[in-house]
Amino acid sequence: MLSFRYTVLMNAPKTARERARAELTAEILAAARRQLAESGSALLSLRSVARELGMASSAVYRYFASRDDLLTALIVQAYTEIGEAAENADLPGAAPEERWLAVWRAVREWSLAHRHEYALIFGTPVPGYVAPHITVEVAGRMPLTLARICADAKGAGSLNPPSGPVCPPEAIEPAMLQMLAGESFEPDEVARLILAWNRLVGIIGYELHGHLQNVTADDALFFDHTARSEGADLGLPFR
Amino acid sequence: MLSFRYTVLMNAPKTARERARAELTAEILAAARRQLAESGSALLSLRSVARELGMASSAVYRYFASRDDLLTALIVQAYTEIGEAAENADLPGAAPEERWLAVWRAVREWSLAHRHEYALIFGTPVPGYVAPHITVEVAGRMPLTLARICADAKGAGSLNPPSGPVCPPEAIEPAMLQMLAGESFEPDEVARLILAWNRLVGIIGYELHGHLQNVTADDALFFDHTARSEGADLGLPFR
DNA sequence: GTCTATAAATCGATAGAC
DNA sequence: GTCTATCGATTTATAGAC
According to a count of CB atoms within 10 Å of the terminal CB, is the N or C end of chain A lower? Predict the structure, then answer.
């Protein structure tokens, strides 16, 4: 399913030719990434990337067959980075509330430092671009990090969702329940997880897009409160 | 602060000349709106609007000084429509839970039917475009509709937020507290309101952007649950 | 595999005739 | 107030020499 471009980034190239190709591919991707970070996906073009690297625009087509392919690589990279940011911030062994807050903060900080990358994966879809299926696996790393924290808390008996409306089980995709089956979550707990993911992404989007201006006075403080509040809704022992 | 274009849409034109101008302005705006609804803001251009109307591109500049001005008019229109959708769906006199759910559903339905308009006001900002201050007033209509429901519930003594982390008052902008001062909300209640607005926008964004695919099985059902759950978090008597 | 050159479009904005 | 014409720039993508 993965095309050659991606395998070239993941497996060690053998011949000198392959090594050179891998290096240039990485260089193109890095330049594209710089331009994305600076101006956003709408202003990203193969030509401007070629210009920055001092090569002819046509040469880039040997490495990325189209602008969409370049975008896909950037999307995979963004998902990977936010997933790694979440995983690296986690503190296995610490109290679930600490882990929860640490991961939320890490995701926010990555997003604030990479607003265009955030927009690429969570914002309005790039017009004309359709995401290939490659992205689904890597897109799950960040959410799964949060799910793991809840699973650990549940295993320790410290996950106690507050009372409130219970999500009807038919609303959740069976495949989703299956994916989290190892943690033996109830459907309602999965629904709360989904809402927590959505909250994390959504509150950051609000902040990035200026919808909190003249609304909140201290964005970081409000974010921390949001994280705690959402954690409490899931049943984590925030007080 | 309002420029001529907007006043021309709001006040009744007097001379025949003014009437003709108002009609053509409305026609241009309608064509722009059609193109926005079809292809999104990224592919919206003054030239294509002019093409659709069969006029020279330069003629359009007599009505909208720049592409940004046209975008601003569309943004004001979108905020107005979603605000009206919310207000019209409200059922003053009915139980707060019914009103709450009705308004949430109306906002979702408007958004699903107008995804590019939703993206224009809640999605990734259009690159290079900076929103003028005209938009703040009209942007408040939808949120205020929800606030009003809570205020009425509070007045009737049926607003009882569940226990959980309390938002530190310093996190909220004083101007925001001031704006809702008439309802005598506590800072923590204002924080819950902000999160409810964010949830409504965010869960719709998730649905629109495909982040619920393979996650939820029945989007409408999950949305209703979300509305109830968020209403309960605010203290509305959802069971 | 990189280059030049080019095709075939798009766009915002302006000048100036009428 | 609408038109033609134009400036000056952008883009994706391809053809073909080397």
Answer: N
